[in-house]
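Quick check before the chapter quiz. The format below is the same one you will see on the exam, so make sure you can read both the input and the output lines.
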Amino acid sequence: FISVSSSAQNYKKELRQGTNLYLKNKYKESEVSFRKAYKLNPNEFKTPFNLGDALYKQEKFEDAEKLFNDAQTKTKDAKEQANAYHNLGNTYLMQKKLDESIEAYKNALRRNPNDTQTKYNLSYAMLLKQQQQQQQNKNQNNQNQQNQQQQQQQQQQQKQDQQNKNKNQQQQQQKQQISKEDAERMLQALQNDEKNRQDKKKQE
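Here is the expected output.
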């Protein structure tokens, strides 16, 4: 029995010490005390909740997230659960997990509908989500425009290539025609030359 009471005393001592350090903004030191308290009594709501707070203040958001999730399972009290969900929403928000933060704030308001701070945070998260979607749509539109431009450029290039090809073919044909004409001229010239020679022979 002595060991149980002494462990309970140690738990309260660590919890109290952690709270005092937390209030003095000594979050790293308060984390150490809250971790000791958590080891001594992990099933008390305050333990993961306070430790989560100390971690949140040090921007250890992923670790804080796990503890606030843990905290809301350790109590049947609606307001305590609401507080855990509220803080969970904040950790998600800081990690830009907007869908998760909106869901967490909604869970908090289901348990404590009159919490104005949670209402405000929910509105803020939803506004960020809206802006994010608008930005995504804008990016998508820009991407579509770029794709269209690229397609147009490719089509123009293909058209240009085809025109050049046709032009080259025409030039080739012209060259062939010229060379055919040249050949005929040369043949004509040879024939004339031969005729001249024969005429000369006749004259001789």
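If your answer matched, good. The radius of gyration is 43 Å.
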